Amino acid sequence: MNFEQFQQSTAASEPPAELPLVLTALWWDCKGNWAQAHQCAQQLDTAEHAWVHAYLHRKEGDLDNAGYWYRRAGRPVFKGSLKDEWNEIAKALLENGSE
């Protein structure tokens, strides 16, 4: 799946079955379901999941918690808009074939 297909998939009521869990977290976030996104993001202990987890806590406004997850992800705190960060994460995960 490429980035455009991923974005288009968010028009559906459920995420694509083949979508990796970390991308499912972003999918639910795009749908406005922070709680479901957070649940998906915290299920696995990988740098990719930590990155999405950081983004979600930044979106929530919990910057201390976000900082912890950015460190776990090995990533700097994102300084741009939430939309730009969502796009950056999604593109990176799709390019890397995340699980």
CATH class: Mainly Alpha
The mean pLDDT is: 95
Low-confidence stretches: none
Ends apart, CA distance between termini: 13 Å
Predict the CATH topology: Serine Threonine Protein Phosphatase 5, Tetratricopeptide repeat
> Using only CA atoms, what is the Rg?
12 Å
Question: Helix tally?
Answer: 6
Number of domains: 1
Please provide the ordered H/E string of secondary-structure elements: HHHHHH
- Tell me the total number of β-strands: 0
- What's the overall geometry? globular
Q: What percent of residues are in strands? A: under 5%
- Binned, the helix content reads 55-70%
CATH architecture: Alpha Horseshoe
Structural overview:
The protein has 99 residues and is an all-alpha fold. The chain has a single domain, classed as Alpha Horseshoe (Serine Threonine Protein Phosphatase 5, Tetratricopeptide repeat). It is built from six helices and no strands. It has helices spanning 3-9, 21-30, 34-41, 47-60, 63-73, 82-96. Helix 2 runs parallel beside helix 4 (47-60), helix 3 (34-41) runs antiparallel to helix 4 (47-60) and helix 4 (47-60) runs antiparallel to helix 5. The chain is globular, with a radius of gyration of 12 Å. The mean pLDDT is 95.
Question: Any chance you could write out the topology, listing elements then pairs?
Answer:
Elements: H1 3-9, H2 21-30, H3 34-41, H4 47-60, H5 63-73, H6 82-96
Question: Which characteristics define this entry?
Answer:
99 residues; Serine Threonine Protein Phosphatase 5, Tetratricopeptide repeat
Short account of what is shown:
This protein has 99 residues and is mainly alpha-helical.
